[in-house]
Amino acid sequence: MKVAVVGAGLMGSGIAQTFAQAGYEVVNIDTFASALEKAKANVDKLFDKKVAKGKITEEQKKEILGRLNYSGTIEDVKGAELVVEAVPEKIDLKKTIFAAIDEQADPDTIIVSNTSGLSISEIASATKRSNKVMGAHFFYPAPVMKLLELIRGIDTDDATYNKVKEIAGTIGKTTVDAPELPGFMVNRILVPMQNEAAFMVMEGCDPTDVDNAMKLGCNFPMGPLELTDFVGVDIMLGTMKGLYSGFCDSKYRPCPLLENMVKAGHLGKKSGQGFYKYDENGNKID
Ligand code: CAA
């Protein structure tokens, strides 16, 4: 079965890798050649590490990467039974991309969005197959995190939901049914916590203390600020803004420090500076 993943950023390339690892033929599509090159280089590097660690053999690496193709044209969604969209979180962009996918994909193809909070029903309205559109929200890093949030739009039919749930099982993901509301399920709980952690830094707390508190006091694998740097300060702030505007509730007020960090280009690990500093390999500098 062929799967097309549209968007080759951090999420898109990880989702493409996830499907290729599970045995699917995958095409990862992005109109930016630089994004495709970066995605390919990152996936190659990850697999080199897996070989070096003895987790997989060189042959297995070649076999998996042989199933993972890259393309600069949306027409390559043709022949895919499932298309996963993972482009930036801008509703107009998503609608344009969905209309283009709808035009090129086979009539029975299911199209899912990896949006972390935008309206599935609105995205689906850009297509002529809104019954075959739903949300399938992966978590970063997509090949590692076991959860897939399933979000039905108003028109999503049972056949589409059941098929996506079945496919989720084949790639080793456990699903939860999340409501079509801002933040869905995880981000509605997680992101306000990260936001609160940023408020504490703004009030003078040391970032390492805040992260250690949550790692050692709650057994979190990463502290909330480390996680913000890992996912991207801009991405986290965008989600918080979505909660604030979507619920029209002041309890979701984004922390001003996050706004200033994004304006300054302190986007976390990817820019080398967030709550912490990073070297060119993404390792934290003390
Ligand atoms: N991409 C792909 N795989 C990655 C990765 C990445 N960026 N980072 C780590 N991995 C893989 C490694 O390859 C390794 O795989 P193998 O065991 O097969 O070699 C595995 O993850 C473990 O990596 P490490 O041993 O290097 O590191 P670790 O044990 O410290 O674990 C972690 C790293 C899995 C990221 C862990 O720290 C963790 O679970 N952190 C929390 C992540 C989290 O909360 N994610 C949710 C973010 S919120 C979100 O995604 C919502 C949204 O809408 C943006």
Give the helix/strand class: alpha/beta
The CATH architecture of the largest domain can be named as 3-Layer(aba) Sandwich
Bound molecules: acetoacetyl-coenzyme A
CATH class type of the largest domain: Alpha Beta
Q: Please count the beta strands (DSSP E, at least 2 residues each).
A: 10
Order of helices and strands: EHEHHEEHEHEEHEHHHHHEE
Fourth-tier CATH superfamily name of the largest domain: NAD(P)-binding Rossmann-like Domain
What topology, given as strand order, has the largest sheet?
A: 3-2-1-4-5-6-7-8
Q: Per DSSP, what share of the residues sits in E-state strands of 2 or more residues? A: 5-15%
**Radius of gyration over all CA atoms, rounded:** 19 Å
Which term fits the overall shape?
globular
Task: Return the CATH topology of the largest domain.
Answer: Rossmann fold
**Uncertain regions spanning at least 5 consecutive residues:** none
- Overall mean confidence score, pLDDT: 97
- N→C terminal distance: 46 Å
Continuous helix count: 11
Number of domains: 2
Fraction of residues in H or I helices: 40-55%
Give the biggest sheet. 8 strands, mixed
What does this structure look like?
With 286 residues, this protein is an alpha/beta fold. It folds into 2 domains: 2-177, Rossmann fold (3-Layer(aba) Sandwich); 186-277, N-(1-d-carboxylethyl)-l-norvaline Dehydrogenase, domain 2, CATH 1.10.1040. Helix content is 47%, strand content 14%. The protein has 11 helices and 10 strands. It has helices at 10-21, 33-52, 58-66, 91-104, 120-124, 158-170, 186-202, 207-218, 224-231, 233-247, 256-263; strands at 2-6, 25-29, 68-71, 82-85, 110-113, 133-137, 147-152, 174-177, 277-278, 284-285. An 8-stranded mixed β-sheet has the order 3-2-1-4-5-6-7-8, sandwiched between helices. The chain has a two-stranded antiparallel ribbon with strand order 9-10. Helix 1 packs across helix 2, helix 7 (186-202) packs across helix 9 and helix 7 (186-202) packs across helix 10 (233-247). The longest helix is centred in the first third of the chain and has 20 residues, at 33-52. The N and C termini lie far apart (46 Å). Residues 14, 46, 50, 53, 55, 116, 139-141, 143-145, 187, 190, 221-222, 227, 231, 235 line the site of acetoacetyl-coenzyme A. The site of acetoacetyl-coenzyme A has 19 residues, from helix 2, helix 7 and helix 9.
